[in-house]
Amino acid sequence: MQTITDTKSLGLLIREERKAQKLTQEQLAGLTGVGIRFVRELEAGKESCQIGRALQVAASLGLSVSVRSRRESEP
């Protein structure tokens, strides 16, 4: 499991998975119903990308997102 702490690391993960699946940005946009501009900005780590659409793209690539409280890692 990879820890995502900012928009840059999320964008990088999305890009790496897209390339691993041999998809172009255009193909990913078509599969997810978002625009190519959104995919480009998401992969670039743009901070103002909509979280709902970002989660939609991640899910279409088979990525799941989970959130963990800091309290859960305390001894």
Describe this structure in words.
- With 75 residues, the chain is an all-alpha fold.
- It has a single domain (7-61), classed as 434 Repressor (Amino-terminal Domain), CATH 1.10.260.40.
- 53% of the residues lie in helices and 0% in strands.
- The chain is built from four helices and no strands.
- The chain has helices spanning 7-20, 25-32, 36-43, 51-60.
- Helix 2 (25-32) crosses helix 3.
- The chain is elongated.
- The two termini are 20 Å apart.
Secondary-structure element sequence?
Answer: HHHH
User: What percentage of the residues does DSSP assign to strands (E)?
Assistant: under 5%
Helix content: 40-55%
- CATH homologous superfamily title: lambda repressor-like DNA-binding domains
Backbone structural class: mainly alpha
Straight-line distance between termini: 20 Å
Radius of gyration: 13 Å
Please report the total strand number as a whole number. Answer: 0
The total of helices stands at: 4
CATH fold naming: 434 Repressor (Amino-terminal Domain)
Number of domains: 1
Point out poorly predicted stretches.
none
CATH architecture: Orthogonal Bundle
Assigned CATH class: Mainly Alpha
